[in-house]
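Input sequence (346 aa), recorded before submission:
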Amino acid sequence: MIHMQASDPRLEQLLEWLRHELRLAVLRVAPASADASFRRYFRLWCADGATRIVMDAPPDKEPIGPYLKVAGLLERCEVHVPRVEASDARSGFVLLEDLGSSPYLSQLRSGGDADALYDDALEALLRIQINGRDGARELPPYDRAALSREMALMPEWFCARHLGLELEARDTELLEATFEFIIAEALAQPTVFVHRDFHSRNLMLLERRNPGVIDFQDALAGPCGYDLVSLLKDCYIDWPRARVEVWVRGYRERLIAAGGDGGGNEPRFLRWFDLIGLQRHIKVLGIFARLWYRDGKSGYLGDLPRTLEYVRDTAHRYEPLGEFARWVESRLVPELAAANARAVRR
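Predicted structure, token format:
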């Protein structure tokens, strides 16, 4: 049975598209997943016995063109992305293959075999980076402007808004110098096809052609360590450093065997991994805080401590980041628990 709020004209329009444009007999509709954007996903139970996913992406906020383009590029890489059955760019609707409801995250949290799961995920990543060489040339660049714009979210939304810090001129100067160092390190890495959110919430456990890969529409051509660190230093689940390094070494060996650039030696490849991870986690601190204060989504606040710990740990590992590491330790770490408690009480 289809339950629909009278105040949801987008859903009503979507159902009209399914019924009248696609002639699809829909028996039941239910929300399929939450999203950190304006997109919504619904699962459809259809009269033909199949389930499908339909994406609702308001065209003025989340145009579907990038999604459709990247889906095609990833299919060429032999990566299992949802098959597109139909789309309407004007309305912002996409009918998709249903990749199920078992994300890696739930499997990992319930004691699934992490080595086996990550083995499949790393194989998919290898296909993206090796088979996606031509496709990467069709993507926008993960350039200085993008890297800088993302990190700027941290002082605005995490430091000032969430922690309530008043950043002085010397704080701003330190952050600017740190961000410049991180950007230079990022741009020195080999450029590959970057999914940009290759982590446990966006990898679906499947019996065949595991994993299913979703949420790839923001792909760029950028640093080779980015997706690897998104997976192995995941903002939603963490692993001991020693285990992470074993996975990183194993991926580097696969990459070299497939003709990719392994950085010449293990320490350099690990440096690529860590420092682009620092860029990502600085960005994510800002995004998670913004999701609460701007968008009213509180579910990400609980992941801030893990994300900040990644920043703290990486900063302490690299000598040029010493001053930044001390700043994080003295200014950010002591304030987070109280800030999260204030946010929950709002």
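Checked by second reader. The chain has a mean pLDDT of 95.
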